[in-house]
Amino acid sequence: MSAAASETIIQVRGLVNRFGTHVVHENLDLDVRRGEILSVVGGSGTGKSVLLRSIIGLIRAASGSVRVFGEDLLALPAAQRSLLERRFGVLFQKGALFSSLTVTENVVLPLIEHARLSRPEAIRLAEVKIALAGLPANAGDKYPSELSGGMIKRAALARALALDPDILFLDEPTAGLDPIGAAAFDQLILTLRNALGLTVFLVTHDLDTIYTITDRVAVLAQKRVLINDSLAAVAALDDDWIQEYFHGPRGRAASVAAVGEESH
Amino acid sequence: MSAAVSGAAVFDDREGVARLRLVGDWTLAHHAVLLGQVNGLRSRIDARVMVDASELRVLDTAGAALLLRLLGGEGVHKLVGSDSGLSEGGRALLAAVGDAMVGRGAAPAARKGSAVGDVLAHIGEGVGTFWRHAVDLLGFVGLTLSAMLRVGLRPSRWRLTSLVANLEQTGLHAVPIVALLTFLVGAVVAFLGATVLADFGASVFTVNLVAFSFLREFGVLLTAILVAGRTASAYTAQIGSMRANEEVDAIRALGLDPVELLVLPRMWALLFALPMLTFIAMISGILGGMLVCVLSLGIPVPMFMSIIANDVGVSHFIVGMAKAPIFAFLIALIGCMEGFKVEGSAQSVGTHTTSSVVQSIFVVILVNAIAAMICMEMGW
Ligand SMILES: Nc1ncnc2c1ncn2[C@@H]1O[C@H](COP(=O)(O)OP(=O)(O)OP(=O)(O)O)[C@@H](O)[C@H]1O
Ligand SMILES: [Mg+2]
Questions:
Q1: A128 touches B: beta carbon within 8 Å
Q2: DSSP bridge partners of A220
Q3: Domain check: are B59 and B199 in the same one?
Q4: How far apart are CA B306 and CA B185, in angstroms?
Q5: What are the residues whose beta carbons fall under 8 Å from the beta carbon of B90, sequence distance 6 or more?
Q6: With contact defined as beta carbons under 8 Å apart, do A168 and A11 qualify?
Q7: Does residue B101 belong to any structural domain of this protein?
Q8: How confident is the model at residue A5, as a pLDDT?
Q9: Does the beta-carbon distance from B347 to A100 stay under 8 Å?
Q10: How far is Cα A43 from Cα A220, in angstroms, rounded to an integer?
Q11: pLDDT reading at B322 higher than 90
């Protein structure tokens, strides 16, 4: 990859997050490079979603700094902050679709508000995004409460992709998708990254995703990022949890599948 | 990265060969410009056009969608397959967009209806909805009463914690606002009475006016209306957001009865709270009246008290208090029932909360009017 690829786009230093007395992060450091797909893994409740929320500026950390595109979001005036936020696409763990809007309207909203498209144009473009995300054509007119769990994920991806963001934050995007759909999802992310040079911050438990599309893996444990490196280096680290994670029955199956795919 | 260059499509058909050159950034930022060009060129593009994308710098999904519109599915397919100078990534993206949109036509046109037809349809819907509301309400009354009976016989299933928590919310926290409001209305009624009755030289009857109206009607009516606004909405929003979050389904799936768990504690809480609040309302309304009587009519407090004690029968107090549990039952019922009708969206929570407040105030006033007529006929 070119020199631009190693440029740091998200820089987290000494991050401390706590809820009451419960410390979630302590002196957490993390770098995300431009154009990479970074997987963040860790046990349930280790603070992956909280980390994502602090990076996009939804949570004010107790201390430490978070810089995205070299800027501290929370210190910026609102107008500038909004400009930066437009370059994010976020898929929340629970979808976070606007429940009073149909799927199409959910995707249309940022297109009209930020890209200033006319409504008919925004709808046409939204239909493309919805199709890209793998939803059937009739899903556009449905309300979120009428969707299945996997469809909610796809609709949320369509909304995250609406503005063709520079950084895509995905919180467990393939949880709840069928394996075929999950594989297609992985490929879509890869295609988008290759075409647009997206940076992808991917929180996931899906070992297949990790083996097939990620460039680097960050492991969250003991309130910090234990290691942030290529898959091979992470899998080789001498740590009980990591060994269990990558070399347990599921980890082995996924790695075998990934290797098998490459040799075909 | 160098500065963004607006994308463009350059078409020429010199020497009988149609050529299309794609240049610059085909991105969302240049959507408006590109759209104009695409719309202008679309009619001139056919299957034989040669596409040259070697000067295309950046392509995003919005740009790919525009290309798809310009070239059509076939054209995009050909472009991806041919050696057009498109980058590897751009090709993959275009292919992904093209594949995703295969077999998707334009959206069907919206249905057109006639104005008269629409009006009739609305009326029909309205009547249908009213009827369904009435049936639902009766059904819910039955459900609640049977649950009350079932649970009432078994003290082990009484949910005292939940009851007390609800009692605090609906009763205790409402005391200040109820007391203040009725105090003010009491003062206003006394002022009115003083002004009108002074013309007949009967301003001392202001005392009777205040006492009658608050014991019989205003105490309970004002409290019920306040509680309808305050508590019915809270009940609907609480149960409604649980519905939207599938929590009510979870209660069912755990083999529990949502009516027993959610409705009964709220119902009992209001059945206790509303009479207590009504009592407070009566007292504070009369106090408000008394203040005016003392200050502007010069009626001393002991005289005020003795007029009430001698002239105003206890039956008025009983009639007023008797209405309180009835109102409480109706308000809690409507609040909870509307909550259960919520489906899925934040909008729906809002709609049903509004509806529950409007309905419960309406029902309170209606039932109060009916009760007034009955009491008059019976001479109570
Ligand atoms: N708003 C909040 N208030 C209090 N505690 C919170 C809040 N949000 C998260 N937490 C706590 O922070 C910790 C990390 O939560 P987080 O949602 O980031 O977990 P996670 O790593 O995303 O887990 P999962 O893989 O299950 O999604 C948890 O222990 C959680 O209880
Ligand atoms: Mg999470």
A1: yes
A2: A225
A3: no
A4: 22
A5: A195, B53, B56, B59
A6: no
A7: yes
A8: 47
A9: yes
A10: 8
A11: yes
Q: Over the stretch B22-56, which tens digit does the pLDDT of each residue have?
A: 888 888 888 888 888 888 888 877 777 788 878 88
For A25, phi and psi rounded to 5 degrees?
A: -125, 140
Cα–Cα dist A252/B361, whole Å: 64
Q: Which of A24, A52, A245 to mutate to test the pocket of ligand 1 (most atoms within 8 A of CB)?
A: A24
Residue A180 contacts B where some CB pair is shorter than 8 Å:
no
Q: How many residues does chain A have?
A: 264
Instruction: With CB atoms and an 8 Å threshold, state whether B344 touches A195.
Output: no
- What is the amino acid identity at position B226? L
Answer yes or no: do B59 and B148 share one domain.
no
Last residue of a domain, one of B50, B85, B105: B105
Per-residue pLDDT at B3: 58
**Pairing relation of β-strands A167-171 and A88-91?**
parallel
- Output the CA–CA distances (angstroms, integers) from residue A162 to A92, A110, B61, in the order listed: 15, 7, 9
Nearest partner of B61 among A203, A173, A194, judged by Cα:
A194
Query: What is the domain range of residue B231?
Result: 144-378
Number of folded domains that form chain B = 2
Is residue B138 included in any domain, yes or no?
no
Q: Would you list which residues of chain B are within 8 Å, Cβ to Cβ, of chain A?
A: 1, 27-29, 31-32, 35, 58-62, 64-65, 68-69, 87-90, 92-93, 96-97, 100-101, 104, 107, 244, 343-348
- Indicate which residue's Cα is closest to atom 10 of ligand 1: A19
Q: Which residue has the tokens 């009626």?
A: B299
Closest residue on chain A to B89 (Cα) = A195
**Long-range CB contacts (within 8 A, 24+) of A252-256:** A253/A207, A254/A207, A254/A208, A254/A210, A254/A211, A255/A207, A255/A211
Average pLDDT taken over every residue of chain B: 87
- Strands of the sheet containing B8-12, edge to edge, are B8-12, B19-26, B50-59
User: What's chain B's Rg over C-alpha atoms?
Assistant: 35
Instruction: Please indicate, yes or no, if residue B119 is contained in any of the structural domains.
Output: no
- Answer yes or no: do B101 and B149 share one domain: no
* Closest alpha carbon to B223 in B338, B337, B369, B360: B360
The SS3 assignment for A185 reads: helix
What is the Cα Rg of chain A in Å?
18
pTM over 0.80: no
Average pLDDT over all residues of chain A: 86
Same domain for B298 and B350? Answer: yes
Say if B129 falls within a structural domain: no
Question: Quick one: B349 and B269 in the same domain?
Answer: yes
Residues B210 and B333 reside in one and the same domain: yes
On chain B, the residues whose CB falls within 8 A of the CB of A167 are none
Burial class from Cβ neighbours inside 10 Å (0-12, 13-18, 19+) for residue B149 reads exposed
A3 versus B358: the higher-pLDDT residue is: B358
Residues B151 and B43 grouped into a single domain: no
* Digit-coded pLDDT (tens) for B155-169: 888 888 889 999 999
ipTM of the complex: 0.76
| DSSP symbols for B323-361 | HHHHHHHHHHHHHHHHHHH--SSHHHHHHHHHHHHHHHH
Contact: A164, B60; criterion CB under 8 Å = yes
CATH number of the domain residue B79 falls in:
3.30.750.24
Chain A nearest C-alpha distance from B246 (Å)? 10
Banded model confidence at residue A2, pLDDT cuts 50, 70, 90: very low
